[in-house]
Amino acid sequence: MRATWWYTVAGLVFLDLVVLMNWWLWLGELPEHVVLPAGPALAAVGVALQLGAAVLLVRDYPVVAADPTTDDEDPAPDRSRHRRTAVALAVGAVGAVLLGLTTGSWMLGFGVLAFLLSLLPWPRGVRWRLVVVLTLVLAGLWVVDAPRLGIDTADADLATVPPTVLLLLPALSAFSLWWWDLVRELDRARETAGAVSAMRERLRLAGEVHDLQGHHLQVVALQLELAERLIERDPAAAAEQIRTARASVDEARAGTRDLATRFRGVPLPDELANAADLLRAAGHEVHVSLGPGAEHAPADVLGPLVRESVTNVLKHGAGSHARITLRREGDRWRYAIANDREPGAGDAAAPGGSGIAAIRDRIGALGGEVHVRRDDEFELTVAVPVGVGEEAGA
Length: 394
Description:
Blueprint: H1 2-29, H2 39-66, H3 76-103, H4 106-118, H5 126-148, H6 161-230, H7 235-264, H8 268-281, E1 285-290, H9 299-316, E2 317-329, E3 332-341, H10 356-364, E4 369-374, E5 377-385, H11 388-393
Parallel strand pairs: 1-2
Antiparallel strand pairs: 2-3, 3-5, 4-5
Helix pairs in contact: 1-2, 1-6, 2-3, 2-4, 3-4, 4-5, 4-6, 5-6, 6-7, 8-9
């Protein structure tokens, strides 16, 4: 998500810069356009101020737009953001004035200010109404600017492409932010669906544990109560009831263990299929390769590792591709996951603060091995002995 947002920021800033440069070059070619002596230097200052203001505004956009309905008990962060927004708009307005004065174009000056206004986190539905108003104002200013610049609007051709692009600039920026909002909502929906699924599993597990333990505890309580009544007049019968209660306790323990095994014992191919679906939903191109007999791999050992490694890909991967393999090689099961790395991302870190060292310790205690490869992609390979899961559950 961070990488996607910065791609959006870079696209917006690049679009703005291209529009400004095209306008300056285009105006310089017009025969009736007079360039002020200090025009290029002042225009460069205006461009720098306007681009700086745009960066300040889009930097806060994900934070402000993440949850506009949240009531923050501490108003200090909101005041700080409001101050930054006010400063950015003031700086951008100065840049717009400089660009308007140096180019002699009201449309260009107002256009860069309209671009900044379209970057603000407006409430739902307000942004597009504002874009329509700004576009109409820009069209009116173009009608005013064209005669002054010696352009016949009735005979427009490709020479008026820069004004046309400037006319569309607020709409293009609003569309880019709408795309980012859509990506963020999809990511939030994916996280919510995962949390709801996990909560359902926990509730189902809690219900089954309650039914199992409740039944056995009630039986044990009745057996012990009966033993208490019989212990004075019929010690042998009381002892039999105590033995029966102990058997009920053992049965409850066995049932609980079987229940836990059933919930933990998702076949590893299913675990890998779920991991691949999760990565694809996040935009990765995923290739999964399973060897013969993969359903017999130790899910209780490799299952948590699959979840940790997939979380690492989602956090640190560049979002392009990932490869997952699982196969048996001799007396070992070998699991590997590889992904392209996000520039500047650190080493793989599993959730909860554990990383490669923790994985090595955990797998090493089972007689396994962990190998890591770091170049243009990150690859984690784990090998565990065949039957390690059975030994762990024995």
